[in-house]
């Protein structure tokens, strides 16, 4: 799954890494402990003909047409996102990217859970595949896609966010590309060998803790 991540890269670095025309987003506040149920940075087309923007969406997906007590998932699995009644409309028309510098997972160790920070070996920003929809309040809400864990990520958890490679960013964001089989052909995840991880402080367990020390390695 993906239930906590960090984004501390400044806007210029993200814009350069994206390599796509993007409207200026201004300064981003570094966040080392991004939790569900908060506003997070996303890259999306607000509508089919709107320019690409980097703005905020609520991390919790509930489409405007859903009932009041409908679920508000933070993740959607790659196995079901294209076919589920709840997600397939957003998968076809409202895909987005969630920039991150890394994410956290918890490894069971002798009756406790040890958090690990996972990121690219080269420390470049990650682009997590997401979907979004207008919420009942008219504001965007999103979910991050997950897939079976690969490479070193599988040492920590059986799921991981769907991290896209550089060539997949433009087609993933293309609102005019709606056929799911075509999307599967042209969109690819980042190679499994590009990730690394290390144990970090259990301070990350509390979302109120948010500082650079959370991503520093500790003795497990």
Automatic annotation (TrEMBL):
- Specify the domain of life of the species encoding this protein: Bacteria
Residue ranges the record marks as coiled coil? none
Q: Where is the signal peptide?
A: none
User: What SUPFAM superfamilies is this protein classified in?
Assistant: BB1717-like (SSF143081)
Please state the Enzyme Commission number of this protein.
Answer: 3.4.-.-
Keyword vocabulary terms for this entry: Covalent protein-DNA linkage, DNA damage, DNA-binding, Hydrolase, Lyase, Protease
Q: Which Gene3D superfamilies match?
A: SOS response associated peptidase-like
Q: Name one Pfam family in it.
A: SRAP
Q: Which family does it belong to?
A: Belongs to the SOS response-associated peptidase family.
Name of the protein in question: Abasic site processing protein
In its UniProt entry, the species of origin is given as Halomonas pelophila
């Amino acid at each position: 799954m993906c239930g906590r991540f960090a984004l501390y890269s400044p806007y210029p670095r993200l814009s350069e890494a994206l390599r796509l025309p993007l409207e200026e987003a201004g300064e981003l506040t570094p966040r080392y402990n991004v939790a569900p149920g908060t506003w997070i940075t996303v890259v999306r087309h607000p509508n089919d003909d709107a320019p690409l923007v980097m703005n905020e969406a609520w991390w919790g997906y509930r489409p405007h047409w859903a009932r009041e007590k409908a679920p508000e998932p933070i993740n959607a699995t790659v196995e079901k996102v294209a076919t589920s009644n709840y997600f397939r409309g957003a998968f076809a028309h409202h895909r987005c990217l969630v920039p991150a510098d890394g994410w956290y997972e918890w490894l069971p160790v002798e009756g406790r859970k040890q958090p690990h920070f996972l990121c690219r070996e080269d420390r470049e920003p990650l682009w997590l595949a997401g979907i979004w929809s207008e919420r009942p309040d008219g504001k965007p809400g999103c979910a991050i896609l997950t897939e079976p864990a690969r490479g070193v990520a599988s040492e920590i958890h059986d799921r991981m966010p769907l991290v896209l490679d550089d060539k997949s960013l433009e087609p993933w964001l293309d609102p005019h590309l709606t056929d799911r089989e075509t999307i599967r052909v042209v969109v690819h995840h980042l190679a499994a060998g590009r990730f690394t991880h290390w144990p970090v402080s259990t301070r990350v367990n509390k979302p109120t803790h948010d500082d650079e020390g959370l991503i520093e390695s500790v003795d497990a």
